[in-house]
Design a protein that fits this description.
single chain, RNA-binding protein, alpha+beta, 50s Ribosomal Protein L5, Chain: A, PAB1135-like
């Protein structure tokens, strides 16, 4: 089982007045363990329309593994590993944006609608150390995912 070099993973999305809140929550739940708590905050848009912010923080290692396992389903996971220099900031946070509509359908794709922020463990706390730790974690999860699909192909 891969190690998890993250302090926490935050996931957030917005539900606009034109969207069904249950469907948007379903998209967010694509990445979460079963029955995971989601916080709701209601806000108002520029034109007075209602916006619901759905967010959660995953902090336990097994729960973070679940999120990372879902992210390893990205078709572009190896491309993502190559882009880590651009996706990790000076505060050791890794940022991803995922396609909300694809997530609602159970798919995992980079796109718009869902924001992921993962605080990378790095000692010393430098961007370079965080990028390296995030790269190792992604490669480990990608390799585990590849092994699992190879094992199921042989059945």
């Amino acid at each position: 089982m891969p190690s998890v070099p993250f302090h926490y993973i935050d996931l957030r999305t917005f539900c606009y007045a034109t969207e069904d809140e249950k469907r948007v929550e379903g998209a967010l739940r694509t990445f979460l363990p079963e029955d995971f708590e989601i916080q709701r905050a209601t806000s108002e848009g520029h034109h007075g329309d209602r916006i619901v912010v759905l967010s959660t923080r995953v902090e336990r290692a097994d729960e973070m593994r679940h999120v990372l396992d879902r992210l390893s389903d990205l078709d572009t996971a190896s491309q993502l590993a190559a882009e880590l220099d651009d996706r990790v900031d000076e505060n050791c946070s890794l940022f991803l944006r995922l396609d909300k509509q694809a997530a609602f359908n159970g798919d995992v794709r980079l796109g718009e609608g869902l924001t992921v922020r993962a605080k990378v463990e790095a000692y010393p706390a430098t961007k370079e150390a965080a990028v390296e730790n995030a790269r190792e974690a992604l490669e480990e999860f990608i390799a585990d995912e590849d092994e699992a699909s190879d094992d199921s192909d042989g059945d």
